[in-house]
Specification:
Blueprint: H1 2-11, H2 14-27, H3 30-40, H4 56-73, H5 119-129, H6 132-140, H7 146-158, H8 162-169, H9 182-197, H10 201-214, H11 219-234, H12 238-251, H13 259-268, H14 272-287, H15 291-296, H16 298-309, H17 311-321, H18 327-337, E1 346-348, H19 359-373, H20 380-394, E2 415-417, H21 420-430, H22 454-466, H23 474-485, H24 493-512, H25 530-546, H26 549-562, H27 571-580, H28 584-591, H29 600-612, H30 616-629, H31 633-638, E3 651-653, H32 657-673, H33 677-685, E4 699-701
Amino acid sequence: MENDMNLLESIFSEQIVFDAVKTIVRTKDRDAYFKWLSDNIEHYLPEDLDFTDGQRQALIEISIALGRMIWNATPLPWNKFRPQPLPTPGRNEKCFCGSGKKYKQCCGDSANQLPQIDPQVIWPILVSVIPSKELKEALLDSSIPMTAILVVADRHVKDGRPQKAISLLQPFFKDEIKGHGEDFDYALHLLCNAYDDLDKYKSKNILLKKIVETAPRSLLRSSAWQRLAAIRIDKGDTVGAWEAFKNAMKDSPDSVDLSHLELQLLAVEGKWNQVQERANFWLKKFKNLPKEAQVDYADLVDLIKHAAKNPKEALATLSIDSGNDPSHVLHDWITDVTGRPIPEYQLEKDNELDIDDDEEHLIKRFSSKLQMMGVTKDELEKTAKRLIGELKASSNPDVESSDGDNSAESNHEYSIRTPENLLNLEKKWENVFPLDKPFGTNNESFSSEDPWEQSAAKKWLLFLGKNLAAFDSLAILDDIATALFSNEYFHDESFLRKIVLPILDRSFEIVKNIKLEDEETLPWGFIENRPALRPLSRLVTVFSMLDKDKRLEEVVDVYLRLNPNDNHGVRMFKMNRLLIENKNDEALLFTERYPEDFDLNILLGRALAFFRVGKFENANEAIKAAIDVCPKCVHYLAAKNIKQPKLSPGLVSIKGADAAWFYRLAMRDVWLETNGAIEWLQKNFEKPKKVKPGQPEQLKLV
């Protein structure tokens, strides 16, 4: 029998119990269940078990014993969720295992040695496997213990199945709330988390309001008030948040769980001295708890101790660890650093790389430039070495370059130099910020990492909290803006005004503070200039979203002054503005800076300006040039009504209808206000030029 017990121990597992309960529910038949177990018992043997044919009868006997054990512990749905134990044979009756022996000579002697299964272990499995209809009926008549439902609901939330958790938990709070103790408090916790996962904030608010209005003074109502306080903090309603906090205190006056909420409220109001005072008060309350409770609250005590010493860092950590939007921590940092003096960035010529320089130094310089271009961190060194090798292979030491060739010394192009006191800070920043630089003129990084994921956000946001001078670094501000452009709230006006604009405006002020003579520029092609120019193009994007025309004009003018080649296409805003203001000669002069432009705003804008000043032949040529670039542009501009074409987020096809559509949205009213302009288009150019079959459309990123 000892060998049989060893065999049983090797088979017995959570998986076989789960599958057995599932089969009981599915078959609803004892004989069918035992047949399934007998047929499948070998599948649960360990792969490395040396199983012999001689043990097969023992295995069958064990399957029956194990099957009885699971059956006897399972609350049967068709028996009002009560177990229906199988009768135990008399000592002289045949044993149930099928050996033919008397029970006393077979399994009877070892019955007490079998592992026993607590029905409480079966309940969570049962909740997971019974059909939805039966489960719903059982929940309504309270046939299933609440603890079992909580175990399963908790598993659903953790495994990313919030809707299933909601289905299990909602009945406890439907109509009249059925209880107010610890189990219901935990049910509320799980249900609110499930609502959050599905963005069902309205449902959560309705539930919390119902609890505070109908539940008696209890732990449950206190928890509901606490959650309402947190919601009101997020909405900026500190008065309402304090009211909710005080109500929670009335319902649970001795609860130390309220400690971090009070500290958060004080932090929102910037009362950091009071945060430290109240942290010390709460630490005294923790000391008065029983030792077992102190162990349970160890993490919270550590947080309160941290708040007593460094309240800003502690509350930032709490906010992120609590699953709150990490951008709130960034907003607090912006508040702290606002008002810092504008740092001074100097200019330098873009020094050429000496290909005969030390290999390590070359790799370092190449890597730095490649990183600014958006090459991923893990590809930097390999790419740098490859480029250095190619340059060395193609160089000819016998040929001297003529004076001024490829040199910034012969023109007025400069790169900016980061202040020495920021260089070390930027190096440390690279170790905590998860994203690579955006590639080319993109606003978002191609990195797969999410900078707002809890652990990633915690690293760089706490770094900012410890280093206020990061607000002086164009490179760090550029990275923060990259993270903001990927934030899920980016299109929210409040988010743009409170968080995005302060970061971009700081970069703009630093750039405007750079001292340049009249003809001196900061070309995009000089990699060091990108953290200065990219924020300006991003400001143009944000100001156009917020309809801040005057500020947009200022930024566009500064950008084009610094980088006349305009790698980001901001010239369209200047061209359109000149036409709106009827400055036609100035508009024509402006287009001369871009003689081979493919931008419809320049091409069609030039045509409109020529038309207005009476140079119709030039206007005709300009329209033809626009049609060559985008065959459908005149049709989309001239038509009274036209259907929106299919748009691709982040992309505009140069020759496609989408480019024509965007120009129509921006400028058709201006054309309509010009007497005879639309009629001239309709008469002379209205039929759209067809694109040749199979001709691919070129795409550009926007």
